[in-house]
Design a protein that fits this description.
Elements (H helix, E strand, L loop, with lengths): L7 E2 L1 E2 L11 E2 L4 E6 L3 E7 L10 E4 L27 H10 L1 E2 L13 H9 L12 E4 H8 L1
Parallel strand pairs: 2-7
Antiparallel strand pairs: 1-3, 4-5, 5-6, 6-8
Length: 146
């Protein structure tokens, strides 16, 4: 599911991210996977079009997401179902959650890291693709997840 490049607010819960709150940020197109009742994973697409198996993907540049794309759910209010019909609810829950930590994971190639990325994205209409870290193809990611 592509999120497009629509600017939207992001809520940062970490003390070093509090200065980023209240601003609008562009998002890359995204692919989400719901795994079981309580698992969510995400990757960024390098092109804003419906993905196929060979579509190039990147690490989704969000706090609370590890190198494998798995989302730390923290206090996220998760939908009761993991079925296809609830995917939009999972995506909404992801964006309405509080992004609290980037951990030791490198989530961007921005020269100033994750804080610099989000600071420099404020007010932009699109996320520069060169700030994303390539992560292979959708097929490769999918195969590693199985």
């Amino acid at each position: 599911m592509g999120a497009g490049h629509r600017p939207a607010d992001v809520l940062f819960g970490a003390s070093d991210g509090k200065t980023l709150n209240g601003k609008s940020y562009p998002h890359p197109p995204l692919v989400f996977v719901v795994d079981g009742e309580h698992g969510l994973s995400v990757r960024a697409l390098l092109e804003d079009r419906r993905p196929g198996p060979r579509s190039a993907i990147a690490i989704a540049p969000y706090w609370n997401v590890n190198q494998a794309g798995e989302v730390c759910l923290g206090s996220m209010v998760t939908p009761r179902s993991a079925g296809l019909a609830s995917l939009a609810e999972w995506v909404e829950a992801f964006f309405q959650s509080e992004f609290t930590h980037a951990g030791a994971v490198k989530i961007t190639s921005h020269h100033e890291g994750h804080l610099g990325l989000w600071r420099d994205l404020a007010g932009r209409q699109a996320l520069p693709p060169e700030w994303l870290i390539p992560a292979g193809t959708l097929e490769e990611w999918s195969c590693r997840r199985s």
